[in-house]
Amino acid sequence: MKAHLMFPDADFDPHRAEPANAQILIDDLGLETVLTAMSDGDQFFYQVARSALLAPPASPERIVYRQQVLTDALAHEPVVRELYDLAVAAIEDRKKSFFGFWHGSPSSILASSVTILSLLRGRLRQLRAIADQHATHFTSPGFTAFFQTIAAELDDAYLDEIDTHLEKLRFRRGVRFSARLGKGNTSVDFVVRTPHERHGLRGLLGTEPGPAHSVTVPDRDDAGAQEVADLEGRALNPVAEAVAQSADHIASFFTQLRTELAFHLGAVNLHRALSTRAAPVCLPEPAPPDDLAFTARDLYEMTLPLRGTEHVVGNDVHADATSLIVITGANQGGKSTLARAIALASLTAAAGLPAPATALRISPARAVFTHYRRAEDATMNRGKFEEELARMREIVEQAAPGVLVVMNESFAATNEREGAEVAVPVIHAMLDARLRVLIVTHSYELADQLHREDAARALFLRAERLPDGRRTFRLAVAPPQTTSYGLDLYQEVFADELQPSRSAPES
Prior knowledge:
- The structure is a single chain.
- The chain has two domains: 1-16 and 55-198 and 227-276, no CATH class; 285-496, P-loop containing nucleotide triphosphate hydrolases (Rossmann fold, 3-Layer(aba) Sandwich), CATH 3.40.50.
- Helix 13 links the parallel strand 8 and strand 9 (404-408).
- The chain is 50% helix and 13% strand.
- The longest helix is centred in the middle third of the chain and has 54 residues, at 222-275.
- It is an alpha/beta fold.
């Protein structure tokens, strides 16, 4: 049996290696806030959500498949949580009986496996009961196929057959097996035989006599007893392995079911956390990668309402067929916030999660890279500009067509001319390699050169600043201005250098 609630044709692997820039993404985009909302205090939810966000499915078809399962989960949350609790209970059953499962003699392995299977058999019956009661209420291809599999593979005849086999495998009247003599009079070709049936009252009471031809090992014949035990072990070994594998197969199914349901319940938690804060939520429409689609209505930075910010301002962004977005304008006007909003929407949409917008159509990114301003290297072995160049090189070496690179005030630690001379060729190389690039900059030199050379494939947005200095946090389509309020950025970048030393005497 397979769960297949994340992918239509594969299991979800929560233990796959994270991308090299995982922690950078989490720090730069505030993903910890999103993961906390999805987990709602459950560490297992957190780990599954983190794995899914950092390794999105990318394919539009797979995203839609996952969204449809999520839609069912939102509509039937109590049933999905009941399924999740059942999977957790099955896993706990296995843990309780795990001692001796892979250790000891074949007879002890067999006994442990039968115990585990007996417990899991009860969970399978509960699963079948849930399917019988609720299957018709679910409409997604994922849940429909899941419940159909349950109905087909866990019918009454099959469950009754499990009961019959488990009873026989307990060997209450001893183990019957046959063998033949091989070379050197060794025993070979062991075959476990069906246990004797009990007949009548004496059979039920266990007093029915055994076979007419038998050998009794004396109480003090330890060697003889050991020889009989060894023969029985050799006979039971393949049976024990088969039963152990069956128990492991069923337990693995419940483990996978728990994992995939944890993701969707985490998505339900995220949807609720945003909705209860009156933040708009939608399931984005994924478009083919080559479309370069990105059209959003009322797009906002997802972590703001999750952290309690009220009156979050959304923006409309129309960037279809656009491989470059350049955001300029006044400091504290919402530039970095919109950049994070776009990056977060790209990650969550590609993972099949709700998007922070009224509507969103997007070509999902294969991956997201961020190049944000960093503090001075504490070792003083290199300055800010050199450190920025090193990180940009790492991104370029890892990037591939279809990824999104977010540059926030990159190369701002040097003068505008030098920064533009470095940044423009790098940006052009990424665009030529079919990457999507999002830039936030105060540098008029950089923004103006890109506007002159790349207007046909770029969208230029500018943060509003009213004449009295107030910010509206709205961004409009507009070319860069010569007045980019660079003094604000200079004071922010070099704030530490401008502050007097604590040890210096006061003037």
